[in-house]
Write a structure and sequence with these properties.
Distance between the termini: 63 Å
Helix content: over 70%
Number of helices: 19
Radius of gyration: 24 Å
Structural class: mainly alpha
Largest sheet: none
Order of helices and strands: HHHHHHHHHHHHHHHHHHH
Strand content: under 5%
């Protein structure tokens, strides 16, 4: 087997199984940082041994077993220093033998991955640290990949991850699912991080590409895993539904050269029907286990309206307005208010929608947010107030961080000249 083939095999295994491997190691050795180091040693050994011995029948089990044996080696080197290390080594050796069994199923999702998600999204970490650590230890992305995804310097990302681990250690965070009374709020943090990652991929906030589908796909993969781990949590299924239905439009959202195609202009035959089916199934699952939809379920309901409309004009905008009004009650925010105003404009015309938007402008809560002048410019244009509309769209273009989006806004402004 060539070195290139082995490297590809190792990368594939790591991408699919890293969360389970890291989670298992963290539970075994009780230290996230050490778990990552041990996994890294196992990957290096795989690169050395697999070209000769071939890829094992169960590569994830092989990597886990080797990593645990390296932990045992480390404990034994310290055996003479402290008898406690000898005890830990014996315990670990018993644990490691479990992974020698090729019947160990790496596809089986157990609570270790869930524990790992709760650690990465622990409330002692800020949101940026939660996102970076989740992508690193649960998603298996490298520091370089995370830096490219969020357009941050590699050194900054690396420092953020290191600081996050140190914070977890200092706070003595334990490797466990939180107690039931804390479960909802902690699960909310995990869902929030996955939602943020998906949205950054769906409409990139900066850079030269409008979408980063790999980022969204990673968030969707993790959300699917999470939903299977907590099958009775309606919002987990609601988030999966929202992601599946939104991702179904990826193939129609850009031209072959990457220019954005807005919703009204998309070729709906290019929407992913299989993904829509999965999204609707996830939403039905959320409805089965929930007692009314939460914020993610409501947003999935909005995405459902789009997915089931044969054309843009046939979209049930009045139902979308109702869903946004429910969302405003459950999860009020100025961004939700702005989206509600956009839906009102489609259902009832631009004039009443402009009243909502002007209230947001007066409140000043979305100052600097490019979509506020963007929506206002759209509404003014539909009302025939072209000069004002043009000024708003150019202001939106000035504020936009994404180059593709900026070009669309400038083109709209120029069309009003």
């Amino acid at each position: 087997m060539s070195d290139g083939a082995v490297r590809a095999a190792v990368e594939a295994v790591w991408r699919i199984e890293s969360a389970k491997i890291i989670a298992t190691l963290t539970r075994t050795v009780g230290d996230l940082d050490l778990a990552e180091d041990l996994a890294g040693q196992a990957l290096l050994e795989a690169m050395e041994q697999w070209p000769v011995s071939g890829v094992p029948r169960n590569p994830a089990a092989w990597l886990t077993s080797v990593a645990i044996r390296r932990a045992i080696d480390g404990w034994r080197r310290r055996e003479r220093l402290d008898e406690r290390y000898a005890y830990f080594a014996r315990e670990l050796e018993n644990d490691a033998s479990r992974f020698d069994d090729v019947t160990w199923d790496p596809d089986r999702i157990d609570d270790d991955v869930l524990r790992l998600m709760f650690i990465a999204c622990h409330p002692v970490l800020n949101r940026k640290a939660q996102v970076a650590l989740t992508l690193r230890v649960v998603g298996g992305l490298t520091t370089d990949e995370i830096s490219k995804a969020f357009l941050t310097p590699k050194a900054t990302t690396a420092q953020r991850i290191v600081r996050a681990k140190k914070t977890l250690t200092a706070a003595k965070v334990v490797f466990e699912v939180p107690p039931r009374e804390e479960f909802s709020s902690r699960l909310g943090a995990v869902l929030g991080v996955l939602y943020l990652i998906f949205n950054e991929g769906y409409a990139a906030s900066s850079g030269t590409e409008w979408m980063r589908t790999d980022l969204s796909s990673e968030a969707l993969r993790l959300a699917r895993i999470l939903a299977e781990l907590v099958p009775q949590e309606a919002e987990a299924h609601g988030l999966v539904a929202l992601m599946e239905l939104s991702a179904s439009r990826f193939g129609a959202r850009t031209t072959p050269t990457g220019e954005p195609i807005l919703l009204a202009d998309q070729d709906r035959t290019r929407w992913g029907r299989t993904q829509i089916t999965r999204g609707l199934a996830a939403l039905a699952r959320a409805d089965e286990v929930g007692r009314g939809r939460g914020p993610y379920g409501l947003q999935a309901g909005i995405a459902q309206c789009h997915a089931q409309a044969a054309t843009f004009e046939e979209t049930d905008w009045k139902k979308i307005v109702l869903l946004y009004e429910a969302l405003r009650q459950l999860a009020p925010s100025p961004v939700v208010d702005l989206n509600h105003a956009a839906a009102v404009s489609m259902a009832y015309g631009p004039a009443p929608a402009l009243e909502f938007v002007d209230k947001l402008v007066a409140a000043g809560e979305l100052a600097g947010y490019h979509l506020l002048p963007s929506v206002r410019g759209e509404l003014l244009g539909r009302l025939g107030r072209n000069e004002e509309a043009r000024a708003e769209l150019l202001e939106a273009a000035r504020l936009a961080g994404n180059e593709r989006e900026r070009a669309v806004l400038i083109a709209k402004a120029e069309s009003l000249s």
